[in-house]
Amino acid sequence: GPLRPRDRAWIARELARATDRNLPEVRRYKRALAARGMGPGLPSGRGRMLVKVMNYNIGLATELDRIYPGARFVGLVRDPYDICESMLARGGDPAEILALYRYFGETLLRLEQRGLPLKLVRHEDMVSDLARAVDEVFDLCGLDTRAARGLSLNDRERGGAGHPPADAVGVQGRVEGLLREDAGKTAPARLAPEMAGMIQLNCAAIIERFGYLAPTAMG
Length: 219
Hints:
Elements: H1 5-35, H2 61-67, E1 73-77, H3 80-89, H4 94-113, E2 118-122, H5 123-128, H6 130-140, H7 166-171, H8 193-202, H9 204-210
Parallel strand pairs: 1-2
């Protein structure tokens, strides 16, 4: 059920503290934008906070909506066959994987149905056209889609030959270069037909809503 008021107050207080701790990094980001002649022409006058909820914590979305009226939500989903194959390759338990995926996906669907200001984004669509996906999310959140176009402030270099540092790729505007075309397709484990059948049985509503198809091997 809903959290008690004191629990919501605790969440709001801790998020505010985390925001304060992150303020130096936000200022660094804004300075880097300004140094490249980018960023909004005028300050918005409003503080913004990005909260990431994962796995079973997605249940907190309704509480965050109560704490922050006017908040916007973005739900990221991925093909259940790909994600299960990937997690199995890392030693995941099939029952736990399916239970978590089903809970997460069905919670997203319920949030969408109840009218939460929610933008659902497929991982596969981000891989195929990241710039478009980012623009749609920015539009939902009332952000200037031109403010940081083509800019990445990630200081880390991508691993593997042939991948320039993320900064170089982003500044040059080749946004899709930050994602591999075969993302989600490289897990070494082979998804057994019985596992694919379990996914179809347990995740039918999610598969239908997001247009995911069974592997070719399923027939």
